Every structure is written in structure tokens, then in C-alpha cells.
TrEMBL record:
Domain Metallo-beta-lactamase: 11-219
Coiled-coil ranges per UniProt: none
Lineage of producing organism: Bacteria, Bacillati, Bacillota, Clostridia, Eubacteriales
Protein name listed in UniProt: L-ascorbate metabolism protein UlaG, beta-lactamase superfamily
SUPFAM superfamilies named in the record: Metallo-hydrolase/oxidoreductase
Source species, domain of life: Bacteria
Pfam families per record: Lactamase_B_3
Length: 257
């Protein structure tokens, strides 16, 4: 089978997977207005199936603006309840759990228990009280309210999407649950490269365990200033040179597998 699968990265963890007439959106998110990263208002149009990896604001806070009448959003309890509170209709939400398996067009999707990178209180405090925040206090209360209204509650999922004989692994955060046997040797893995000081070490260890053929880096960009930052991925790219192909796309950029 020689059908091509197209992968488009929009920023943060937001990715569209297209295979023929079938499409999936992963964690679609519009950058904050003061981010240098801009995204067209219609960037996520024409895709009626959305997978949510977890309930943090940069994964779900744009959903209300994206959902159309026929949109289906697949998510766990925490984002389900948050999205309901934010005005998304229950008819648009499909509650799933780790172990759920379902099909969307040509895609077959399996949800696995995931794990979020540990966010400790000291690192959060430093981020909130950083110089960048202090020098950019305009609108900070609204931003903090948006961030704190969306909780993960230890419900992070990973997805394996199978289509045209290929397997795509979508990590919700760059961490693995200890008790889960994840698929190895997938054709493509999404690595959200953000959330810890030792991010290169974490990513390298996961690659060693799962041995993906290709890695797509996501979430390394600065889409929700002043709390986010651009992460240098060069150490990981250098580490992976002889191990697997690593793609770092521009915003709106695509690759085919």
C-alpha cells in the first residue's frame, strides 16, 4: 500500500494527521495574542475529530473556538468536565479512558495510560515570578486564570494511531508510565519537548526504550508568553543523529510518511 500520510504541526502540541479523506487533530491550541507565533483563525477548519492528550490549558483552552456542530472531541474526565464548564456541548464530547480503542475513518486509535512530566511547586513558582513575567504584567491575571482553570489530574493519555500499515505514537507529555508496555519501533513518534530542565535526557531515554523510526518534535516553542519559552533542541537532535530521524518543522510545516 503506497498511500501517504501527511503530518502538519501548528505549534505547541497541535498536530493534524491526514490520510486520504480521513483527518485527526491532536491538542489544537491557538497561541496567546502576544506570542510572536501567529496562526490563522481557520487553521483547524475541516477536521471534525479531535484527540485530547490531557487537560492542561495549552491542550484544551482553544477547543470551544474550534468545535463545530459535527465535531467530536475524545478526552478523559478532567478535560471533559473543564470543557463543559467552558461552554462546549456534551454532544461534542466523547469520554474515553486508557484502553479505549476506536476507529475514525481510516484511522484505528488506541489510548494508552500516559504520564505527565512532573511539575514541582518550586519550578512553577519560579516560572510565575520570573523576570519575564514581572516585565510583562499586562493581562497577567486573565492568563493565570486561564492556566489554573484547566487541570490534568493525572489523566494524561498516549495514543497509537494506525493507518495504511503505519503506526504513529502520540505522547501527551514527555514521560512514560512505569507499568505500561508501550508499542516499540513505531514509524513516527510525537515528542512534546518541554517541561523539564533535563529534557534531552528524558527524550533520549524514551527513545532508547521505544526505538521509534522517526521522531517529530513538538511543544518546544513559545506560544503562551510570558510563561512559556523557546527550548533549544540541538542537544537532542545531535544525540539522535545515528539513532533515528528527527524532524523539527516550522509552524504550519508538514512531512509525509
Amino acid at each position: 500500500m503506497n498511500e501517504k500520510i501527511n503530518i502538519t504541526w501548528y505549534g505547541t502540541a497541535s498536530v493534524r494527521i491526514t490520510a486520504g479523506s480521513s483527518q485527526l487533530l491532536i491538542d489544537p491550541f491557538f497561541p496567546f495574542p502576544d506570542s510572536r507565533i501567529k496562526l490563522a483563525a481557520n487553521a483547524y477548519d475541516d477536521c471534525s475529530h479531535i484527540l485530547i492528550s490531557h487537560g492542561h490549558f495549552d491542550h484544551i483552552s482553544s477547543i470551544r473556538d474550534i468545535v463545530k456542530k459535527d465535531t467530536v472531541v475524545y478526552c478523559t474526565k478532567a478535560p471533559y468536565h473543564t470543557l463543559c464548564k467552558k461552554g462546549v456541548k456534551k454532544r461534542n464530547l466523547k469520554l474515553i479512558t486508557a484502553g479505549s480503542s476506536f476507529s475514525v475513518g481510516d484511522f484505528h486509535i488506541t489510548a494508552y495510560k500516559g504520564k505527565h512530566i512532573r511539575l514541582n511547586a518550586w519550578d512553577i513558582l519560579k516560572a510565575v515570578c520570573s523576570r519575564r513575567v514581572i516585565y510583562n504584567l499586562k493581562g497577567i491575571t486573565g492568563k493565570l486564570k486561564k492556566i489554573t482553570s484547566c487541570l490534568e489530574k493525572k489523566e494524561t493519555l498516549c495514543y497509537v494511531v494506525e493507518v495504511y500499515g503505519k503506526r504513529i505514537l502520540i505522547l501527551g507529555s514527555l514521560a512514560l508510565a512505569d507499568d505500561i508496555d508501550y508499542p516499540k519501533g513505531v514509524d513516527l513518534a510525537f515528542f512534546p519537548y518541554q517541561g523539564a530542565k533535563n529534557i534531552c535526557e528524558l527524550a533520549s531515554n524514551i527513545c532508547g526504550k521505544l526505538a521509534p523510526k522517526v521522531v517529530l518534535l513538538t511543544h518546544f516553542d513559545d506560544t503562551f508568553p510570558p510563561f512559556s519559552s523557546e527550548i533549544d533542541t540541538s542537544d537532542f537532535e545531535e544525540h539522535m543523529k545515528k539513532r533515528a530521524k528527527v524532524y523539527k518543522l516550522p509552524h504550519g510545516g508538514s512531512l509525509e510518511i
